[in-house]
Amino acid sequence: xxxxxxRRILVPIDFSPASLATLRFAKLLAARFGAKLHLxxxxxxxxxxxxARGVPLRPFPDRPIMQAAKKRLxxxxxxxxLSPRDTQCIVRLGDVSSQINDxxxxxxxxxxxxxxxxxxxxxxxxxxxxxxxxxRSAPCPVLVVRENEHFSAKERARRGRTPLQFQKILVPLDFxxxxxxxxxxxxxxxxxxxxxxxxxxxxxxxYALSDEYTxxxxxxxxxxxxxxxxxxxxxxxxxxGQGQGNIETKVAVGSPVEQIDTCVRAEGVDLIITSTHGRxxxxxxxxxxxxxxxxxxxxxxxxxxxxRIAQKRPASRK
Length: 318
Hints:
The protein is α/β, with parallel strands linked by helices.
């Protein structure tokens, strides 16, 4: 497995503290890979208004707003000591998530580094978030940057004074081809940063029990599932371990998202790398997405790898 190569990193900027913190993180990542940064700000179309009754509706002028946004992006180059030659400022008009993904595709970005506001509960369920909409249809992997909440303040301060590092990366698996895409990407990423890998699987225990006799079989079923999972994890570890550094495995029982959260905190994980099936529409709305739940609840940064990128031929790069 070759080390991951990033040549172009796209960073959505809305000038919030979260997006500026993400830019600091992306700057370190770009320096590590020798990558170019593409800063993109999306202006949502403003509503129309009428001067008086009977006068046709006329739109607010978007051009001055876009010009002001372009100027603010250019000021960030100086503020963050970025290379003017290796930093491009992009301002677009339209739906935020669609424009971000379109900019990533047209600029052949290898990675989108984006912040999340971490909305939960009913507000999240009904309103959604730009970050999750980007993840659902992104043309490349998406790194959702979040401060490592599970580390002590002292440890976070220490890491903030050192070069970019990912000492331990957790990779959720379900033994599908889709999750293998995430594992393959994680192997390359770990090789670049000389990170330890923790391969994780959670046995979900949800059964419809018709009587007391079938209930007695639940422990046996769980035991068989765990045994099978351990065998699969051992096989994957052996395959992935060729030429790779430290690789650990863990099999848990329970909700994957809850168990991942517990494992991240207990093991001191720096980053989660997971793949997504890229479902959309009613199917995704009904069954949800484990990757999206991980992004929403994880106490550390999450790198989401779309399953569809494995089906594309690598584009030639100049």
